[in-house]
Amino acid sequence: MHHTIPSATLTSACALVLALASTTAPAQPLDVPRITVTGTAASVAPSVAGFGDIPMSRAPLSATVIDQRQLQDAGISSFGDITRLDAGFTDAYNAPGYWNQVAVRGFILDNRFNYRRDGLPINAETVIGASNKQRLEVLKGTSGLQAGTSSPGGLLNLEVKRPREHIRSAGLAWTEDGTLEATADLGDRSETLGWRVNASATRLDPQTRASRGDRWLVATAFDARPGPRTLAEAEVELSRQSQPSTPGFSLLGSRLPDASAIDPRLNLNNQTWSLPVVLAGRTGSLRLTHTLLDGAERQLDLVVHGMRQRLASDDRIAFPYGCSAEGAFDRYCSDGSFDFYDFRSDGERRTSDALDLALKGQAVLAGMKHQFNGGVLFTRYRARNGGQAFNFVGTGTIDGNAVVPADPTLFDGNTQRDERSVEWHLQDAITLTPSLSAWAGLRATRLQRDSVLTDGTRATRYRQSFTTPWLALVHTLAERLQFYASAGQGIESEVVPNRSYYTNTGQPLPTLTSRQVELGLKRASGAIDWRVALFDIRRPAKNDFHADDGAPAAGDCTDLDPCTRRTDGSARHHGVEAEAEWRAGALSLRGSTMLLRARREGSADPALNGLKPTNVPARSLKAQAAYNVRALPGLAWIGFVTHEGRRIVLPDNSVATPGWTRIDLAARYAHAAGAYRIVWRAGVDNATARRAWQEAPYQFGHAYLYPLAPRTWRLSLQVAS
Q1: pLDDT per residue over 567-625, tens digit each?
Q2: d(CA 543, CA 565)
Q3: pLDDT at 18
Q4: How much is the CA Rg of the chain, to the nearest whole Å?
Q5: How many angstroms separate the first and last alpha carbons of the chain?
Q6: Interacting residues of 452 by C-beta distance below 8 A, sequence separation 6+
Q7: Closest CA to 614 of 514, 695, 536
């Protein structure tokens, strides 16, 4: 998986697909669809919710669905950029060249536990390819009903493209400076067999300097119907990306640098010895669906779904971290210098297995309709890593001109992890009356986790069991107007770091139970759809306390002054989300907004109470518009507006970045040429060349700042038959 693809392949791949299309395409007229922004609101509730094909307007939950065409219109090639499409999503350490992190309702989605692929859990500590994904589903809020353990922000599920009749599509795309991508999508099906192949090859050459790389993906999907009641599906995906990552800027002493004075094209990871981050993945799954009952009132399907994911990573960077000259290790020096480290962690390997056995269907019992899903999910996770380097190599400067030597000496061990879990789950949507329905679910989880350093020290092992209930009621107030109320729980499980200065070292904390209450109002009509949701999430927080007097430790634990780690108050995020979509003739508009109040509450340390979390804007607004030009059918002008409020930089709330607004513009022209449908796209992101700090992640005990990307032009061509 370490072969690079020559740039010439980008052209030859498309030429091959076009040749295939020209010899196999049927000669039939194609309709050119009108272009609208149908929004990211789902017409059908996300499959990851677990309630089957139920209209989103009836489901008592908040969710967003983004299909591939929306990603293409917005010029999105990285899943981290979906934050432009919905106000509930915000950036959370989206370093270019690295895997993405996204926050939902102010909580960061855990890349180990909050991601699903066709409903099964995967590890997202990698780059996730988009070319073979049909759509993205984001379920917002506490997800204990759908996941054994997870952050309370929600779940992100990736739906893989499956076979359908006669697919012949190829595309070419260019993004400034010189990124080139070729894609191909081929498939067909008969009455009993179906197949689909997706491939993409990309030469990465963004405007950010010292960031050239390459990426490729090949995926196949098959299905077969051995009988009228049975469907067997299989798919395999191979991918690899090699690209230097981009570290963030930081505070200069106590000063927030002026974003307008920072070159957003600068990459501080620009040493001659800097190596790319290499992220490779292999994933395969099998799914068997057999219909046991298929009647007017009773339907029952048996679903057996298994998947294996193997990830390989080489994580390397010339890493700016702290200022030892001024004794500040969470920021850069006041003169613009910083400590430079040579970080390397080669040979990281992660394997995830999942097997779900489920019965899904519907029945009428006691005059009430039930739509249910019940079963058991088995998961296994294994991480094997080698040694790592994190060596001081000199002093860097934010102008990017410093030259320092390399030091790849491995000095520290890494962590080996093993985890197994069994999750029994049951969900039921019950129609009580024509205007009232109840939705209930329960997940019972038993997990075992083990970890040890590569040298055999600091071993931990623990087992936990817990249940996570969820309940909701939906009341129809008027035609197409629904009110709902829901309450649920989520679980996170953590162990005290195995360090000598903790009195409870290596012991598991009590399960961290987050709770969410949500009230919502939805209306779906022909011209305008809208929803409003009020939510309140409480998540337990942790803190260290001096062992002798029980006072808050404020991070100064030592072997001579040991600490005890325990839960301490909570992080409370409550707010309102609103979303509306309006269509009137040639014009369609969609907007979403979130107002969020996120605070620390209930801590034994009064100084912590009332503090805001870092890198979480209190308000965000995302809007999209499309205008179909009547004088030239198939042409549409598309616009995107993104606004986010200020973000806290330091945990003590002493520094914050200003809010910002970004405008993106695009055009799309679709037309028929014989048996082919051709789609041209052109766009400019950050059209006004706005300079601002896009996000301010506090990671690894350090405050980082990432600027908005500079004005960027893009073009693409897609041909299909």
Answers
A1: 999 999 999 999 999 999 999 999 999 999 999 999 999 999 999 999 999 999 999 99
A2: 6
A3: 36
A4: 26
A5: 32
A6: 415, 416, 458, 459, 460
A7: 695
CA 123 vs. chain centroid, Å, equals 11
Average pLDDT value over all residues in the chain? 92
Tokens linked to 385? 């890593």
pTM of the model: 0.92
Please give the structure tokens belonging to residue 242: 């090699």
Percent of the chain with pLDDT over 90: 83
Determine the pLDDT at residue 38: 39
Single out the residue of 266, 414, 313 nearest to residue 99, CA to CA: 313
CB hemisphere CA count around 302 (13 angstroms): 5
**What pLDDT is recorded for position 54?**
84
> What is the greatest pairwise CA distance in the chain?
83
Q: Where are the alpha helices (DSSP H) in 44-154?
A: 68-73
Domain ranges of the chain: 8-720
Rounded to whole angstroms, how far apart are CA atoms 101 and 124? 9
List for the chain the helix, strand, coil content (%; round to 5). 5, 55, 40
| Among candidate residues 86, 85, 78, 148, the one with its CA nearest the CA of residue 116 | 148
Place of tokens 């934010």: 398
Instruction: Report pLDDT digits (tens) over 333-383.
Output: 999 999 999 999 999 999 999 999 999 999 999 889 999 999 999 999 999
* CATH code for residues 8-720: 2.40.170.20
Q: Which residues contact 276 (CB under 8 A, 6 or more apart)?
A: 97, 213, 242, 243, 244, 245, 314, 316
Examine residue 177 and say whether the peptide bond preceding it is cis (omega within 30 degrees of 0).
yes
How far is residue 126's CA from residue 529's CA, in Å, rounded to a whole number?
36
